[in-house]
Amino acid sequence: MKFVITVVQDYDCDKLLRAISKENLGATKISSTGGFLRMGNATVLMGVENGRVPEVIELIRTYCQSRVDVQLDATSPEYVEWFPAGVHEVTVGGAVVFTLSIDRMVRIMPDAGGPES
Predict the structure, then answer these.
(1) What domains are defined for the chain?
(2) pLDDT tops 50 at residue 37
């Protein structure tokens, strides 16, 4: 088994989660925030069989493309140090993927009948 940790932009996360679900894979989404631009991110956690890791990485590659779509006004006080003058385009999107080996994964499911009273 592999533990796949993927950090993607919020904009891409819903498309990725739909594709993961369509392939009968499970995932957990945790909201996070990027450090540099302070934009919304999502950290997607997955337990994946070794043989399906290439498939998962291809899904991430397909649904989390990088793009240029953020323009910063350099007159904003928080950015004036980093950017000289004018508006700058920033590449956003894509993904950062960590794949870790795990010894065991246990899924604990509630009984179908629910808790006894």
Answers:
(1) 2-101 (3.30.70.120)
(2) yes
